[in-house]
Design goal:
about 150 residues, alpha+beta, three-stranded mixed beta sheet, two-stranded antiparallel ribbon, 7 helices, 5 strands, globular, IrrE N-terminal-like domain-containing protein, Rad_response_metalloprotease, IrrE_HExxH
Amino acid sequence: MDKIKQTALNIITKFQTNDPLKIIECLNIIIVYDDLGNSLDGFLQQVDKHFIIHVNTRKPPCPSVIAHELGHYFLHQSINHFKVSKSSLFFPLEIEQEANQFASELLLTDDMLYSMLESFHPYSIQELASHFELPVHLIELKLATLSKDDYPL
């Protein structure tokens, strides 16, 4: 099992939930809703020993944004690779992809997906995204992970 999936599963076990809002509450992470412009969904900020997740009010509320920022919190806390580009903060692409994968593993466990797939076949990626209320790109990441682990789809 890959490290990111295992990290997400460990967090679900530890906090007894995959709900990002409940997890940030347990961790005493502050959530702030800000107008971050049109290109940024959110970002994780550390101030002294406190962490703040900023979520863009210009975008529809989505647990995947908070889950993505939790990915940075759990996977990249020791990395300080923020760069500034056109007034927005971002991590290098590889780190962003890892945070996306973490979000997909946290919000959609293998058991959740298999239970859905077993109830009726076939589902399109768009139907799965709609059912789980997740962005299509996170469903695609999750399905790619399942295929990599040789699960029958």
